[in-house]
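[09:14] KT: can someone run the structure on this one? pasting the chain below
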Amino acid sequence: MNAMAELTLGILTGAPIGVWPLLSLLIALGLLCSRDRQISLLSQIPVPLIALINLPSLLALEAYRLAFMSWGLAYLCGILGGFWKQGHWTLARTGLRITVAGEWFSLTALMLLFWANFANGLVTSLFPELAAMAFFQILYLALLGVLSGSFLGRLLRMFFWQNQPAPHACGKKRHTEVLRRL
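[09:31] RB: done, structure tokens below
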């Protein structure tokens, strides 16, 4: 067996068993977000808690102050980006019900978070010198921060969205207009 096949097999069999069901769940959630749908605003409140998965990575670093600063700055940027982008995807709000357009960002963000954490674990075990470098840590934590922050920004945008009914079934007309503007 060649080295690449051994490495791949080692990754697949060496990962904790709970990783693969989690990946399946994240893919399913991301695919759900790709469809136009109505959601409850209250059901979206726990979504920004995804940032908590970053805590073990932050606390494990020796230079935790630098880590928290880079992650925090990226988190703030993610909030701003998520707030701005959710304006394109929110079609209508009536009370606590929100009509949102389907989008692929959620799947992309969830996959990036998952695979960044997976890659960090892999790099930490195979190349500890690289994982200990400040550049690697800052880049890794900035990615986690901006993606995690985007979920809070999106929630805030939905909270502050004006009540207005959808013009058509699930807002297809508005969705087309938004896509034309992009």
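[09:33] KT: thanks! The chain has eight helices and three strands.
[09:34] RB: yep, looked fine to me
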